[in-house]
Amino acid sequence: MSPFDSARREQPRALVIVPTYNERDNLPLLVAGLLQHPNVRVLVVDDNSPDGTGAVADDLATTHPGRIDVMHRTGKKGLGRSYIDGMKQAIREPIDVVCQMDADFSHDPARLPALIAAARDADVVLGSRYVPGGAVVNWPRRRRFLSRFANVYVRLITRLTVRDCTAGFRCWRRETLATMPLDDFVSDGYSFLVEMLFVAAQRGARIAEVPITYVERRVGESKMSRAVILESAITPWRLVAHRGSVKAR
Ligand SMILES: Nc1nc2c(ncn2[C@@H]2O[C@H](COP(=O)(O)OP(=O)(O)O)[C@@H](O)[C@H]2O)c(=O)[nH]1
Ligand SMILES: [Mg+2]
Predict the structure, then answer these.
(1) So what's the pLDDT on residue 104?
(2) Region at 105 (left for phi over 0; alpha for psi -120 to 50; beta for the rest)
(3) Other CB atoms closer than 10 Å to residue 62's CB: what's the count?
(4) What distance in Å separates the CA atoms of residue 189 and residue 228, rounded to the nearest whole number?
(5) Residue with CA nearest ligand 1 atom 16
(6) Closest among 65, 67, 24 to 46, alpha carbons compared
């Protein structure tokens, strides 16, 4: 065995969950970027995208046997449910860390190793826009403001101390994720991300942030909606109201 082989083996084994809805043009490039890294596998969770992303994912799975899995769901049931279903499968796999990221290149696959490396000393790692070195590119002023405001709002109400509570690029130690009450999460979208982080913090998880540059998608459409924003406004209050039950679980 060459030293190179053993170095490869020492890299943590990662499974990256990528939820997709109409990401046909983005997915092949994203997968190519992710598979550059050793010991990385991908789980695509597709909500029966009308644009045929599911079939594109199946083709990728055939081209890269053992490295891509595809979970087909029956319709658009939301980002939160997709992540939960993906995570339930992921925690049963022989891996060290479970990562989550968007399919639209807002999260650069080249940053994945930095998140995985930080999980050596943390239970959850966030790819953060709002720590020194982090940045947002191509967001209109309104979207920038909304995200900044959301973070101040969430931090004030929940007392979370991380800078980017709505970060969607994350890496979990598998054991940490396995102890999370996945069936109890009820929210979707950004709220889901905040809810998971809140519960992890309540349970004493060590949370780290590594800087990322978040780039707004160039291809396809955002699924951000008014309902998503409304849910995000209510969720922090709901979380603190039920704080006790979270801890006890
Ligand atoms: N499976 C699944 N994926 C979704 C759903 N909604 C959004 N996504 C995916 O979640 C990621 C983030 O969504 P996006 O629309 O870019 O939201 P934004 O970045 O907040 O504007 C992308 O990979 C989407 O394809 C959904 O209902 N189901
Ligand atoms: Mg996006």
Answers:
(1) 95
(2) left
(3) 9
(4) 6
(5) 222
(6) 24
Amino acid at 113: P
- The ligand 1 atom at the shortest distance from the C-alpha of residue 223 is 15
**Which amino acid is residue 28, in one-letter code?**
P
Q: In whole angstroms, give the CA distance from residue 146 to residue 150.
A: 6
| Ligand 1 close to Cβ of residue 225 (< 6 A) | no
Interval between CA 3 and ligand 2 midpoint (Å):
39
Q: How many other C-beta atoms can be found within 10 angstroms of the C-beta atom of residue 121? A: 9
**What is the per-residue pLDDT across 5-48, written as a single tens digit (0 to 9) for each?**
555 557 899 999 999 999 999 999 999 999 999 999 999 999 99
> Which residues 6+ apart lie within 8 Å of 37 measured at CB?
11, 14, 109, 112, 113
Q: What is the pLDDT of residues 96-115, one digit of tens each?
A: 999 999 999 999 999 999 99
Q: Is 120 in the pocket of ligand 1 (CB under 6 A)?
A: no
Structure tokens at 160: 């979370």
Answer yes or no: are the C-beta atoms of 171 and 205 closer than 8 Å. Answer: no
Output phi, psi for 244, to 5 deg. Answer: -60, -45
